[in-house]
Amino acid sequence: MIQDFEIFFQILLAAIFGGLLGIEREFGKKEAGLRTYMLVCVGSCLFTISALYGMELFAGDLQVKFDPIRIIQAVAIGVGFIGSGLIIFRRDHLEGLTTAAGLWVVSAIGVAVGLKLYLVALFVTGISLIILTGLLLFEKKFIGKK
Fold first, then answer.
1. Widest CA span in the chain
2. What is the distance, to the nearest Å, from the Cα of residue 6 to the centroid of all Cα atoms in its chain?
3. How far is CA 12 from the centre of its chain?
4. What is the pTM of this model?
5. What is the domain extent for residue 128?
6. Which one of 8, 54, 63, 102 is at 20 to 30 Å from 25 when CA atoms are compared?
């Protein structure tokens, strides 16, 4: 029962962290926004939690090889597949690359929450917000990007 509440907390926290980055993407009117970022973060978290509990479930069974790292790797590959569909070369510029990279990072945040690395997940969420917002202003002012 207590274990269930911790899992619910982890999933809620992943939704919040994913939502923070998703809101920033919504303000920028990007392809993937609040719901997408939240779902990717929550899904990554749940895959990680499931992998860890699966490992515990089969820990004593020598006939079953269960490697949670493979599931985390599959999350990274799956999100990379989603992200690749967002990247488009239009006329003379590339679109969707930052959104794809953001989805990839938010999936890593979900994995971190699933692994109970809460402070790391919070830190990466904060750094990612700074990168997405602060550096955008810097690029516009000093580099001349639109």
1. 60
2. 19
3. 14
4. 0.87
5. 2-143
6. 8
| CB of 68 closer than 8 Å to CB of 53 | no
**Residue appearing with tokens 């490992």:** 55
How far is 139 from 94, CA to CA, in rounded Å?
16
Three-state SS at 1: coil
The length of the chain is 146
pLDDT on residue 110: 97
C-alpha 62: how far from its chain's center? 33
Provide the pLDDT for residue 144.
Answer: 73
Cβ atoms of 111 and 17 within 8 Å: the answer is: no
Please name the residues in contact with 144: beta carbons below 8 A apart, sequence gap of 6 or more.
none
**Residue 39: HSE in the Cβ half-sphere, 13 Å Cα cutoff:** 7
How big is the chain by its Cα radius of gyration, in Å?
A: 17
Tokens read off for 119: 């402070």
Query: Model confidence at 146, in pLDDT bands (50, 70, 90)?
Result: low
